[in-house]
Automatic annotation (TrEMBL):
Protein name: Uncharacterized protein
Keywords tagged on the record: Membrane, Transmembrane, Transmembrane helix
Regions that span the bilayer: 6-23
Domain of life: Bacteria
Organism: Agromyces cerinus subsp. cerinus
Residue ranges, compositional bias (Low complexity): 47-62
Region span, Disordered: 33-62
Entry keyword Transmembrane: yes
Biased composition regions of type Basic and acidic residues, renumbered to the chain: 33-46
């Protein structure tokens, strides 16, 4: 009987951890700056990334 209580307690801990991680992931997905929340067709982020990559590549070449 004691084993049943241990297993139930372990199951409750796993369920709580799963719920915590799912809720945290859903909240994090709604934060500003997330790719899911980007404006469709906006290219400013990709252009800034490309410019930074080009600048870094030019600096490494010398």
């Amino acid at each position: 009987m004691e084993l049943l209580f241990w297993l139930a307690g372990f199951g409750v801990m796993i369920a709580c951890a799963t719920v915590f991680l799912v809720v945290r992931a859903r909240r994090a997905r709604r934060l500003p700056g997330d790719h899911d929340a980007s404006i469709p067709g906006e290219r400013s982020h990709s252009e800034a990334t490309a410019a930074a990559h080009t600048a870094g590549a030019a600096r490494r070449a010398f």
